[in-house]
Design goal:
A four-stranded antiparallel β-sheet has the order 11-12-13-14, with no helix packed on it. The two termini are 13 Å apart. By secondary structure, the chain is α+β, with helices and mostly antiparallel strands. The chain has nine helices and 22 strands. The chain folds into two domains: 155 residues, no CATH class; 168 residues, no CATH class.
Length: 412
């Protein structure tokens, strides 16, 4: 599995203050001036620890700081937690240019009736009442990716060496991975080489939650960035992996009935929302799910464009952010350039390719407008300049072998 460089992260672990000397990464300093393993007395509980944290914060090098509990919350009293909350709050008041992140303690098998649950809820209540930031370690570590909770089933068996995946019924991380070995979570979890108090799957979830939190703190408004997800169709039945975890989750993923057997499925961002919607065509009649609800209703579009037997092509022909329709026989192309769904003077008719060749579309030159092309699986002819005719500005490639199926995408 390849990772996007925008998620680069680097850590410097030391008892001397300083961020890693790199650029283009999320940088973390892990340690205190009194030692590299930050126990409460080295960070917030004691004069020397408080002095160390204040000295580090006074450098102005940091935007955020967080103390991570080990098993202390399991045996702390209400008074201990109050001291923790008050001292972190004091740090924030003394360093208004920084935010301090609060944290709960990991599960310890005692469930809702244990001291851990009471102390974690004490932390949560304080955070809610005082508009603080919380990394809810216990809550994240007690759910599997399908949303099942194990906190009141004894997860966190093992005392000081507790494994949050161990519960009264076994190991939920291992069970989930066995059930969904091809999921995105499993692919990430298998890359995890070390995960204290848990398994790779749990650390993958906690890492994702941490990234989400930090992105929100640095300006992201929480709106998901649309990414391509998978789905399958069989006649009028569509099953879409809505939550992008690579498995079917009834009640979460989407099951639609749209179209009829024998019609060709089409996909596009019909109304420039940034999301993909479904549709069907027979090469002449088009039914597009304009409002994205997966059912044909009065808000959707019916177009008559093309002729039976012609191949459908879709793309943003005019760079307006919407997907428009079109048809081709591999040589003649008719593109609904103005997005009206009918053929008129604002549309485009091109001659490009030859009958029998496979039509392809893509943004060949990076200007965000969709262009046309043809291939036989080995020879590729791309209308690079978007003129609709073959000329010196276009691209000819030899890649693959006859009979292979072409695919187009932004691979990097």
């Amino acid at each position: 599995m390849a990772y996007d460089s925008k998620f680069n992260i680097t850590t410097r672990k030391a008892s001397t203050e300083g961020l890693p000397d790199v650029t283009g990464a999320f940088r973390i300093y892990d340690g205190t001036l009194l030692g590299t393993y930050a126990t409460p007395d080295l960070y917030w509980d004691g004069m020397e620890g408080i002095a160390s944290t204040n000295t580090i914060a006074n450098t102005g090098h940091y935007n955020f700081s967080m103390f991570a509990f080990c098993d202390q919350v399991s045996y702390y009293t209400e008074g201990n937690i109050s001291t923790y909350l008050n001292n972190i709050d004091t740090f924030e008041k003394d360093h208004p240019g920084m935010r301090f992140i609060y944290m709960t303690g990991h599960a310890d098998s005692t469930g809702n009736s244990g001291n851990l649950a009471a102390r974690n809820e004490q932390i949560r209540a304080y955070v809610r009442s005082n508009n603080k930031i919380l990394y809810d370690f216990e809550d994240i570590g007690s759910y599997d990716p399908s949303g099942n909770s194990y906190f009141n089933q004894g997860n966190g068996i093992g005392g000081v060496n507790a494994d949050e995946c161990q519960y009264s019924g076994g190991n939920w991380c291992n069970s989930w991975m066995s059930s969904y070995p091809s999921s995105v979570y499993a692919a990430v979890a298998n890359k995890v080489t070390s995960c204290d108090h848990s398994e790779g799957l749990n650390c993958a979830q906690k890492g994702g939650a941490f990234w989400w939190m930090m992105a929100r703190l640095t300006g992201w408004d929480g709106t998901p960035v649309p990414v391509s997800k998978i789905g399958v169709i069989n006649g009028p039945s569509w099953n879409l992996d809505w939550n992008d975890n690579g498995i079917w989750d009834a009640g979460t993923d989407k099951a639609y009935n749209f179209g009829s057997t024998g019609w060709i499925p089409v996909l596009g961002d019909w109304n420039a929302t940034g999301f993909t919607y479904i549709g069907v065509t027979n090469g002449q009649q088009w039914y597009l799910d304009w409002n994205g609800n997966g059912a044909f209703d009065g808000a959707d579009k019916i177009y008559s464009f093309g002729a039976p037997g012609w191949m459908n092509v879709n793309g943003d022909w005019n760079n307006d952010g919407k997907t428009e329709i079109g048809v081709t026989n591999g040589q003649q192309w008719y593109l609904d350039n103005d997005g009206s769904g009918t053929w008129n003077a604002g549309d485009k008719a091109y001659t490009f390719g030859a009958p029998g060749w496979t039509p392809i579309t893509g943004d060949w030159n990076g200007d965000t407008t969709t262009k046309i092309g043809v291939t036989n699986g080995q020879q590729w002819y791309l209308d690079n300049d978007g003129s609709g005719t073959w000329n010196a500005g276009d691209k000819a490639y030899t890649f693959g072998a006859p009979g292979w199926i072409p695919v187009v995408g932004k691979w990097s």
